[in-house]
Design a protein that fits this description.
By secondary structure, this protein is of the alpha/beta class. Helix content is 47%, strand content 11%. The strands form 2 sheets. It has a 7-stranded mixed β-sheet, with helices on both faces. A two-stranded antiparallel sheet has the order 6-7. The mean pLDDT is 95.
Length: 255
Amino acid sequence: MIVTVIGAGRIGGALTECARAVGREVRLVDRERGWEALDAPAGAPIVVAVRNDDLDDVVERVPASRRADLVFVQNGMIRERLAERGLADATRGLLFFAVARRGDPPVPGGPSPFHGRHAAAMVDFFVDLRLPATEVDAPTFAAIELEKLIWNSAFGVLCQAHEATVGEVVERHADELRALAGELSTIGRIALDVDLELEPLCERLQAYSRSIADYRGAVREWRWRNGWFVAQSTALGVPTPTHERLLDRARAWPQ
């Protein structure tokens, strides 16, 4: 089965190079070239490896007959936007590998979870690329999705507010991290019907951060990360004072 990858940035480029290195045929689509690959018959995965803000433009360019083949691997809370586009049942993946800069090989972390129509095919693809991956059910995927969103959002604002690395946040601001994780997980539990026990959650967040202790997070992709929690806090009437105080300190509110 030939996998198509849309997006020639860090992630799309790394997947394509890994595939070619092991002899897996892959079709790469960038902003200008390769779109004819989507004229092929339906049934094979199309990995969408573009920025969240570019998703609408990409989906518009995909023939209607191939949209069920799309596999979204973005971080951040994109499920609501996918549902608005009629893609609530699209295959999703969360990538647990790092690519430091364009052209670098991926450095595997834990297994990347996939859920949906093409989950098994994506696991086979990743295994061929020597990247660990696993197929999971919908509740498991939602729990992992929320936990990763909490890590990105919590350490983004904590690192920016304290001008610290993730390792320094764990060592010096553990109480604040716990309070923030509690607020964000409460929002996620209500909005997504996902329950993450706070103490095990904090332990996992801290353990992962210690493994990449020198990384410095920042508030990025507002709409899809911290901004989602702010919007849900307002819609649900659930206060998040720690989050808002840290956003103030980090001067991270959008202008």
